[in-house]
């Protein structure tokens, strides 16, 4: 059940509930997006796991599937229910099914308008955009059993947003002020959602004071608006000042680590408490030895 109990998601029996599944998919893909009807149903449907979202009256409002080749697809939510967590619940159900099957990874073809949604859920883009049924798509992949390599700026944006999105009450950022990721709309939107959520939360940012003027204006504005959420400290121990790595971690067991902070290449760990704890302990040691950034008073933070 969702928190407001207005809908629920279940793994469907395709033989019994296929009319409900295809009803949603036909409305979204064929009627709204003009996908040819003959492409909406295929031979993989009887072989796939299907997630079905139902409202309080038992009416179908969303559908998605997980195919035998470990691909999530046919994600469809009726227009009146978009933005209410239905897509998230469908995706969670299919990811849980993939884990239960012992699969190490899943992939999907994301429509371009939904690319940020999947990025925030740990899917990294791969390759160039392409058209499928006349609609722009992006191939994306998520590992379920270990680290994902982050190799380019698009993947770095997705990795950073994923860690922020999954945070419960605490985020730890070890970055340079000129880090391009802090100016990316996807990352800033994820930070804004976390910082304005209705619960106690904290963003700890380790930053050399010399880097303060390089902070993006949008990030500074967010920190100025929410000074009780954002804490900035400057490393002062000589060894800490020489640390060249960068990292984004949370209290959910996720982290994106970059051995060379000036580069985006690194590893994204999701649902990996042991690895995230290791990074958190390193961050804590530096944080406790650091001091508040005096330059914040100049910036008004």
Radius of gyration (CA) equals: 21 Å
Main beta sheet strand tally, sense and closure:
8 strands, mixed
**Strand fraction:** 25-35%
Shape: elongated
Corresponding CATH architecture of the largest domain: 2-Layer Sandwich
Q: SSE order in H/E notation? A: EHHEEEHEHEEEHEHEHEHEEEHEH
Number of domains: 2
Residue-averaged pLDDT, rounded? 93
- Helix fraction bin: 25-40%
Low-pLDDT segments, ≥5 res: none
Strands side by side in the biggest sheet: 8-14-13-12-9-10-11-15
What is the number of helical segments per DSSP (H or I, 4+ residues)? 10
Describe this structure in words.
- Residues 9-145 form the N-acetyltransferase domain.
- It holds the Pfam family DUF7931.
- One of its GO terms (molecular function) is acyltransferase activity, transferring groups other than amino-acyl groups.
- This is Acetyltransferase.
- Keywords: Acyltransferase, Transferase.
- By secondary structure, the chain is α+β, with helices and mostly antiparallel strands.
- The chain folds into two domains: 7-103, Aminopeptidase (3-Layer(aba) Sandwich); 150-299, Endonuclease Chain A (Endonuclease, Chain A, 2-Layer Sandwich), CATH 3.30.870.
- Helix content is 34%, strand content 28%.
- The protein contains ten helices and 15 strands.
- The protein has helices at 14-32, 37-40, 86-100, 115-120, 153-166, 185-195, 217-225, 238-241, 273-289, 296-299; strands spanning 7-12, 49-55, 60-66, 71-77, 105-111, 124-132, 135-143, 148-150, 170-174, 202-206, 230-234, 246-250, 255-258, 266-269, 291-292.
- The strands form two sheets. The protein has an eight-stranded mixed beta sheet with strand order 8-14-13-12-9-10-11-15, sandwiched between helices. It has a seven-stranded mixed beta sheet with strand order 1-2-3-4-5-7-6, with helices on both faces.
- Helix 5 runs parallel beside helix 6 (185-195).
- The protein is elongated, with a radius of gyration of 21 Å.
- The chain starts with 6 loop residues before the first strand and ends with a helix.
């Amino acid at each position: 059940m969702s928190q407001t109990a207005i809908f629920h998601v279940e793994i469907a029996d395709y033989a019994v509930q296929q009319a409900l599944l295809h009803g949603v998919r036909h409305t979204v893909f064929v009627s709204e997006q003009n996908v040819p009807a003959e492409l909406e149903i295929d031979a993989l449907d009887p072989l796939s796991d299907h997630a079905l979202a139902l409202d309080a009256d038992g009416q179908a409002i969303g559908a998605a599937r997980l195919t035998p080749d470990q691909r999530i697809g046919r994600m469809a939510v009726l227009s009146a229910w978009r933005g209410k967590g239905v897509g998230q619940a469908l995706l969670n159900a299919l990811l849980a099914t993939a884990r239960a099957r012992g699969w190490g990874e899943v992939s999907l073809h994301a429509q371009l308008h939904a690319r940020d949604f999947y990025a925030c859920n740990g899917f990294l883009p791969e390759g160039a955009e392409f058209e499928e049924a006349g609609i722009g798509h992006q191939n994306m992949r998520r590992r379920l059993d270990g680290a994902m390599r982050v190799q380019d700026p698009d993947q770095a944006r997705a990795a950073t947003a994923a860690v922020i999105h999954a945070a419960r009450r605490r985020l730890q950022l070890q970055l340079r002020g000129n880090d391009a990721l802090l100016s990316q709309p996807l990352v800033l939107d994820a930070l804004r959602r976390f910082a304005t959520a209705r619960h106690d939360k904290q963003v700890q940012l380790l930053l050399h004071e010399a880097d303060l003027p390089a902070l993006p204006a949008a990030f500074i504005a967010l920190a100025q608006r929410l000074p009780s959420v954002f804490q900035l400290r400057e490393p002062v121990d000589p060894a800490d000042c020489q640390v060249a790595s960068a990292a984004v971690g949370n209290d959910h067991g996720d982290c994106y680590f970059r051995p060379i902070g000036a580069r985006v290449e690194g590893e994204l760990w999701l649902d990996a408490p042991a690895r995230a704890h290791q990074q958190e302990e390193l961050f804590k040691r530096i944080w406790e030895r650091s001091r508040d950034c005096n330059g914040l008073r100049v910036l008004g933070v």
